[in-house]
Amino acid sequence: MDERSERLGFALALGACLLLAVGAGWGRWRPAQVEVGVLRGEVTVHVEGRVAAPGRYLLPWGSRVDDLVALAGGLLEDADPTLVAWAAPLTDGASIVVPQRNDAAGDQRVDVNAASERLLVTLPGVGPVTAARIVAARPFHAVEDLLEVAGIGEVRLEALRPWITLGGGG
What's the CA dihedral at 64, 69, 73, 77 to 10 degrees? Predict the structure, then answer.
């Protein structure tokens, strides 16, 4: 055998080994084929505020806010339908607040001693952190007690006054 034949034989043997190695390990090198599917079962959502039957409801996946409000018995007379995102899709664990209409007929204020954090964030200038602080600082005996809550100063308190009560008209 001459040197050229040896090299050719070596190259063929090396190629065969590479083909065997690639063939044996190919399943590990290529990405696994995974069937992706979307579970479309049900969603659990909560509704509170001005609906006939506030509470937790189980709805089919793909339901909208209007489906939830209908299941909760519809809006009360003093609800403000203009502040409801009727076509918004519901996601599992969502909480929807239907606010009260702000008109001259009756007291429309939020009781800061009883309202949930979700309802408190509907107040002007109150975000989730401030709402949690309000809940933690309860009870309030005077509206001015809110000044003790971090994030509420004189200016914010004055903006809140027309919107809040201490549960008996405080």
Answer: -150
| Residue range(s) defining the domain that contains residue 86 | 42-98
CB burial string 133-150: b at 16+ within 10 A, e below: bbeeeeebeeeebbeebe
In a domain, 32, yes or no: no
Half-sphere exposure of 31 (CA within 13 A, CB side): 3
The verdict on 94 and 119 lying in the same domain is no
Q: What's the CA gap between 14 and 20, in Å, rounded?
A: 10
pLDDT tens, 79-98? 888 888 899 899 999 888 88
Domain membership of residue 52 (yes or no) is yes
Task: Tell me the β-bridge partners of 56.
Answer: 46
Contact of 163 with 134, CB cutoff 8 Å: no
Same domain? For 133 and 155 the reply is yes
Total-model pTM = 0.45
Note the pLDDT tens digit of each residue in 116-143: 888 898 888 898 999 999 999 999 999 9
Alpha-carbon gap, residue 54 to 61, rounded angstroms: 20
Total domain count, the chain: 2
